[in-house]
Amino acid sequence: MELNLEFISTKLIKPSIPTPQHLKNYKLSFFDQLAEREHMPLLLFYPNGNNDDNINDDKFDEKLEKSLSRILSHVYPAAGRLSRDRCSIDCLGQGVKFTKAKVNCQFNDFINQVQNDLNLALFFFPRDIQDLKDADFDRTPPMVVQVTKFECGGIAMSISASHPVMDGFSNFKFVYEWAKVCKLGIPADQIDFMSFDFGEILPARDLSNIFPNRVHPVELEAKFIAKRFFINEQTISSLRDKLTGAIDSGELCFKPSRVEIITAILWRALIRVSEAKHGYLRRSLVFFPVNLRGKISLPLKENAFGNYVMDAPILFVPEKNKMELHDFVTLIRNSVQKAIDACAIGSADDIIATVANSYKEIFTSKEWGTDNDEVDKCIISSLCKFPMKDADFGRGKPSLMHFGLRNFHSCWMYDAECGSICVQVDLKDSYMSLFECESDIMAFTNGNQE
């Protein structure tokens, strides 16, 4: 399928109510400083024909822009710009970049094609968020939106957020609430779903002497592809039942969650794929992002805007760890809980010291650091219970979702229909061909993949 994109217009959508003087400078937090300097795109596809108000495209465009303007009056940092010191955001109502485009194909034709080639979804990402140089990143708005219309009226919505400004929780919450404002016509003075004081509770610091640059290796030369795997509720229950023997024997001392089970199988499959490629079992490091909201003693609200996530490092050592499923489940549970416990109590300074030491052990160590090619690294992230699939702008729920820039081995879990879970897996082409044929994955998904 040859897709041609035609850009129609680009503008800046500004808050409908000017940001008050006392909010003109939004302070970033210590955790904002830890985030990678990149944009995180979320892509939602909506078919035509589900428009609750039966309004035409021009009216929908107007509702979309006006509702974005209203919600920016509340989420004012998203309409600002990073300051020169990178420790705050100048909130002068500069605006969110909003681009409208159209593509030369029917929505259903594209959806049928994308089931076989998920890479086609990348076509709808804004061009100006990819491969940003350092200076360009500072000048790029914290949020970039692109709405692309298909010939039949269906749309692709890309909402990309600057990671140092907001994490996945903040981004997805923003999109969900924006959809509500658009569909229901909620006025600006009634929008209130986030707090904006994290930078006061855990302020930004001079990291030059206490923390290494937190950068995941990005392999731009490699060809990455993505596939989706669907795991239904019955399969998850069956997998949990298989672990009953380990619980009965005392080898597993807790009932694992569905996310822990799926993470264990994905990770074990990746380790086996690496073994097949290299001819020996290698060390493996999983970065598992943990949302710390509601899990620590600081006076932080659970709806705090910004970054409040820690990458819990989970380490597999062939000489130390076994390959049974319950061994992986236990390793995942213990590692994630260790990361949470390290931040659960103590002062702001205690938390900063703990997080800094934890990351130093990984990012600068010879054994596990980013320069060590003898360690396989990946991100496995759970987006379950986040409300993206219910983001209804008045056109119904999205029929397809896509995450990430696809430049690192990654697995993204999110809720699908009827209690099932969808996993978007991003791997190098040579890894994917082995991964999708791995016995665990074939049994795990029962052939349900796209």
Automatic annotation (TrEMBL):
Molecular function, one GO term: acyltransferase activity
Keywords in alphabetical order: Acyltransferase, Transferase
Cited Pfam families: Transferase
Stated family: Belongs to the plant acyltransferase family.
Name of the molecule in the record: Anthocyanin acyltransferase
Organism whose genome encodes this protein: Solanum pinnatisectum (tansyleaf nightshade)
